[in-house]
Amino acid sequence: MRKTAVLSDIHSNYIVLKEILNELEKENIDEYLFCGDYVVNGFEDNEVLETIYSLNTKNIVAGNRDVSIATYNGHSWKDLNQFKAIQYSYDNITKKNLDFLKSLPIFKIITLEGKKIYFAHGAPDNVREQIYKDSYDIFDKLIDRCKADIYITGHTHFPFCKRYKNKLFINPGTVGAPIDGNPISTYAILEIDGDNISYSHRVFNYDYNVLKEHYLNSEFHQKCKEWSNLTIYMFRDGFDYYNEFVQFVNKETNGDEKETSRLWNEMFLEYFKMKKLKVL
Q1: pLDDT score recorded for residue 1
Q2: pLDDT digits (tens, 9 = 90+) for 47-99
Q3: In this structure, are residues 170 and 155 in contact, taking their beta carbons and an 8 Å threshold?
Q4: CB of 176 closer than 8 Å to CB of 17
Q5: Of 6, 37, 40, 217, which residue has the fewest beta carbons closer than 10 angstroms?
Q6: What gap in Å lies between CA 215 and CA 184, rounded to an integer?
Q7: Sheet holding 185-193: strands in order across?
Q8: Angle 177-214-83 (CA atoms, 0-180°, nearest 5)?
Q9: Quick one: which of 55, 53, 57, 43 has its CA closest to 14?
């Protein structure tokens, strides 16, 4: 029997990642499997990636955030307010870690205990593909294209485990950025023993006040105040304030990057007033 811990969407949340790994040390884990988005949304990208290295696993694929950093030219977003957090990650990542992100594939198929496992952030040809528990058309495409017994994806931050056409489809949720209304971190444990496959959904209740103070006392908060505020309130409420805010701005600017940047700070204050949130 092999016991595999499955983690995804860490988003630079080093504090919670370390606490979850401390919990997993008690579980006699044989394998670790990571489904992408290790960086951005915070300021400890290097610490997250170094921690993943330390686990000596090759079961790692890239998420859309990782691809964005790995393929960025270093200057296109410098003067655009809406990309400050991504620029911050790029400016602070080490060469070793940038090279590591560049080396990651967007999907892998491995064999554990005789069972083939496809894992990715999204689809094999689209790292941003959103796959939910009822995405049957995508399930069918994955079954047809990538022959496996188990399919594991991330990206949506919505955990699920679904049996479909004698296959198992899994999303472990998110370690670092809850947006499904539950301010918790989630991950999964997969156990394979011959033909017996069991899945366990795990929850970690992080300390919101610790995360809040950690962000407020950071350089990231000073340089990327809007993103930091949106992230802190996400920790508190388990709500995707960032995407809602982006939609709020884009409705005014029709997605024009320069206009979005020009109005970013002004509309941030307007959005927080509308949501009755205090700027931290």
Answers
A1: 87
A2: 999 999 999 999 999 999 999 999 999 999 999 999 999 999 999 999 999 99
A3: no
A4: yes
A5: 217
A6: 17
A7: 31-34, 2-7, 185-193, 196-204
A8: 55
A9: 43
